[in-house]
Amino acid sequence: MDRIVHGAQPIDQFVFRDDDGEYYMYYGGWGHCNMVRLAPDLLSVIPFEDGETFKEITPENYVEGPFMLKRQGKYYFMWSEGGWGGPDYSVAYAIADSPFGPFERVGKILQQDPEVATGAGHHSVIRIPGKDEWYIVYHRRPLGETAANSRATCIDRLRFDAEGRILPVRMTH
């Protein structure tokens, strides 16, 4: 992305491949998130059926760092909230029946733990192949660290309840 569309800063691109083989890219900062449909070459965009090229899908409190996963037929759209340089940086999510939304905000799943770290956010999620076992990879700021750019990469288990909601992530040491 090389321009601002719908107010979205062209950063933090995430490519999602749906079960039907379609690829979508989610991106954006400055409190706005867009999605585009990618051509098979993964280098160019193609319009959606309604003729639009960019769809704004900004959820409430979105700041940056979009991520999409699909589990048991549901689309989980995740993002970072708060300021990346402060203790309120966190990860929230919403659920939809389609990669286009509408997304119903559920809430925050990762935020600071005053006993472990602050500034937890900007994440990715990985799944163990063939299993319903998921992990969240993110950065956080060690306790006592005051430099905004001093962050550590961490990985913790991502769990779901019986209804498919993501449980709050417990930061490990």
Automatic annotation (TrEMBL):
One Pfam family cited in the UniProt record for this chain: Glyco_hydro_43
Keyword Disulfide bond: no
InterPro entries: Glyco_hydro_43, Glyco_hydro_beta-prop_sf, Glycosyl_Hydrlase_43_Enz
Keyword Hydrolase part of the UniProt annotation: yes
GO terms under biological process: carbohydrate metabolic process
GO terms assigned for molecular function: hydrolase activity, hydrolyzing O-glycosyl compounds
UniProtKB keywords: Carbohydrate metabolism, Glycosidase, Hydrolase
Family label: Belongs to the glycosyl hydrolase 43 family.
Name under which the protein is recorded: Xylosidase/arabinosidase
Species whose genome carries this gene: human gut metagenome
